[in-house]
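Appendix C reproduces, verbatim, an entry submitted by the partner laboratory led by Prof. M.T., so that reviewers can inspect both the input and the predicted structure.
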Amino acid sequence: MTAATIATQELRAVLEAALQTPIRTLRRRPYRYATSHALEEFELETAGGAVLELLFKDFARSPATGSQRSAKPAHVYDPLRELLVYQQVLDAADTGAPRLFAAVADTHRRWLFIEKIHGTELWQVGELSVWMEVARWLARFHGQHRLLHLAADVPLVRYGSEQLAIWRERLLAAMGASVRPLMEAFDVATAMITEAPATFLHGEFYPSNVLIADGGRVRPVDWEMAAIGPGALDLAALLSGWGHDEQAALIVAYRQGDGSGLDDDTFERLLAACRLQQAAQWLAWSPHWQPPPEHVQDWLAVVQDQAERLR
């Protein structure tokens, strides 16, 4: 089913049932930010005069741009993951995620209707104090252990030995001789990640996926890679792009609320392991794929640096 064949009337009927009120007007247009699935922006007015702005994600469609940036490797791709995360986890917990308005999952439709958040992407915020508050928020988020129970039936990405072994082989295939001397460190990182206390992860907690809304509220978006693993994996994504001193400040802020129970030395090595894993994923993501501009770094240098920390 393509964008042209999804009648506005059918979408209106789903939303009217979810909102329990007639919709007077419904305007829709393509959303300018591409993900792994097609997005549209909805503006609607109910019969009672309420005006709502929503995002509609159709998990049966790829972005109209055909951009390879959004392509996910088969071993982590699941078109139902984000829909189920919203239904079973985010809608039942105060995470700051966009509000869920409606979700449809049947033979022909896999649709998600969520709040459109107005805010500033974190990567556009220059004040380190704001980033530190996000790091504290992240620690509190990781401390909500009931999220894993809520996600028991969700096909989350699982950072276990099987998943990490796949990334290891993809990295070797993509980079060859340039990373072969680093495999011992990669194996150390794998052991640390799989043995560390696990929690519910955003999975791609990069600054472009974190909006700062009015009042400084942290609003994470794009939950397509929600996962189970050590919280340091999300922290590693948050740190990307900062210099040493700023990273140190963010780590201190996170550790103020970190409930992992790890001592400082163990946590420091675990974070190095997670940063190595994160960089390896960027290097091995997909053939002919390039990361979006805000994620561009010398990821091989990151792998080499973190590998040295784990020796």
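Residues 64-69 have pLDDT under 50 and may be disordered. Additional entries are available on request from the coordinating office.
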